[in-house]
Every structure is written in structure tokens, then in C-alpha cells.
UniProtKB/TrEMBL annotation:
Organism (species): Ancylobacter oerskovii
Name under which the protein is recorded: TetR/AcrR family transcriptional regulator
Presence of the UniProt keyword DNA-binding in the record: yes
DNA-binding region (UniProt annotation): 45-64
Ranges of Basic and acidic residues composition bias in the record: 1-14
Length: 220
């Protein structure tokens, strides 16, 4: 009896597969991001993702293996995006104190402008980061920002601008926490205190507070 190949194959009825395979992949990731952000991993449906793209469910499995593989790819893409933006800041051309303030401000702005990133990280924490643990890209991606912060910080210590004894990871966690909380807890703070942290007249103050907190942590 002839052996049947059960591995998923691309849907060759879609001309875009051969004309622009990377474009198809990006389209799937974008539709998947919206679906996962809205419904979480368990509630998201691959059928819905396929319906919103010029492809098929079979094509999605061809690219990403299964729903969890697609979910992991979405997270990887979201982390890759923020790291690409950070690399474009050209922080090495600035004095250490200006570079750190710029990074803190950028991180705050990025989270405020990309609430889907915050929501996906929250969803992944619900799953105890088990998908991040199986990613071959995430660790390498995120180590880059620690190296950047370490270089800025050590330059600031050498110049007498920053106090010694701090760890680059602690600085990163502080910057991230101040930026993340302003988005992740916006709804609950609004309900409990009647204070909208994302309102146009409040957000700039929150941003400056985040920068000031980081700089006070670093200075003598």
C-alpha cells in the first residue's frame, strides 16, 4: 500500500503563497495577534484567523505547526519589534544620563502606544511563561537590552553620573515596571480611584514621573 503523507502542505490555490510567502506569514501573524489579544490562547480560534487572511487553516499549520506554535510566533514577533525600536534609538551617541532618560521615555511611550504587547505579556504570565520557555529566540532577543543598559550604566558610573553597585537587570525591570503598569492596570485604577492614567492630560505627567524615578534610582 502506498504511504500517505499526512504532513501539512501549503494551500497552492492561493497565488500569494508563491508570490509573497513572507507577506502571507506576516498577514497570518497580524490576524493572530488580534485574535489572541482579544480572546487569549484558549479562546482564540484558528478558523477565525484563517477567515481574516487570504489563506487557509491548513496553510497556518504549515507555517506554524499548531495553534500554540502560532501563539509563540506572535509573542516572538512582538518582543522582536520592541527590541528593533530600541536598537534604532542610537543611545551610544548620547551622554549616559541622556541615554538612560531617553530609553526610559521611549519604553514608556512604546507600552502606551502598544497596549496589545502588554496584554500578550499578561496572557503569557497566566500560562506561567511556558511558551516563552520553549522559544529559541526570546532569550537572545531580550538579552540585547540588558547589554545596552549595562553599557550605558557603566559609562555613567565611570563619568561620576551614576552611583555604583546596581545591576543592569534591575534597571531594566524598573523601567519596564513603570511603563507596563501604566497600561496593564489602567482600567482598574480608573475604576478604583477615578484616575485615568492614559488620559491626554495625565499621560505626560506619568511619563515624566517614570523617567524621574529611574534617574533618581541611578544618581548619587
Amino acid at each position: 500500500m502506498e504511504k500517505t503523507d499526512t504532513a501539512p502542505r501549503p494551500d497552492r490555490k492561493s497565488p500569494s503563497w508563491t508570490q509573497d510567502p513572507e507577506g502571507v506569514r506576516r498577514s497570518i501573524l497580524e490576524a493572530a495577534r488580534i485574535e489572541f489579544v482579544e480572546h487569549g490562547l484558549s479562546g482564540a480560534r484558528v478558523d477565525e484567523i484563517a477567515a481574516k487572511t487570504a489563506t487557509s487553516k491548513r496553510m497556518i499549520y504549515y507555517y506554524f505547526g499548531d495553534k500554540e506554535g502560532l501563539y509563540r510566533a506572535v509573542i516572538e514577533e512582538m518582543y522582536d519589534r520592541i527590541r528593533r525600536f530600541e536598537r534604532g534609538l542610537d543611545l551610544g551617541a548620547l551622554p549616559p544620563d541622556e541615554a538612560m532618560a531617553k530609553l526610559a521615555g521611549f519604553t514608556f511611550d512604546y507600552h502606551a502606544d502598544n497596549p496589545d504587547f502588554v496584554r500578550m505579556v499578561m496572557i503569557e504570565n497566566i500560562h506561567h511563561a511556558r511558551h516563552l520557555a520553549t522559544s529559541t529566540k526570546i532569550a537572545t532577543l531580550n538579552l540585547s537590552i540588558i547589554d545596552v543598559i549595562r553599557e550605558i550604566y557603566e559609562g555613567g558610573v565611570a563619568a561620576g553620573l551614576f552611583r555604583p553597585g546596581l545591576e543592569a537587570l534591575d534597571i531594566h525591570l524598573t523601567i519596564s515596571a513603570l511603563s507596563f503598569y501604566n497600561v496593564s492596570n489602567r482600567a482598574s485604577i480608573r475604576q478604583v480611584f477615578g484616575h485615568d492614567m492614559g488620559a491626554p492630560d495625565i499621560l505626560p505627567q506619568r511619563r515624566q514621573t517614570a523617567i524621574d524615578t529611574v534617574m533618581r534610582m541611578l544618581r548619587h
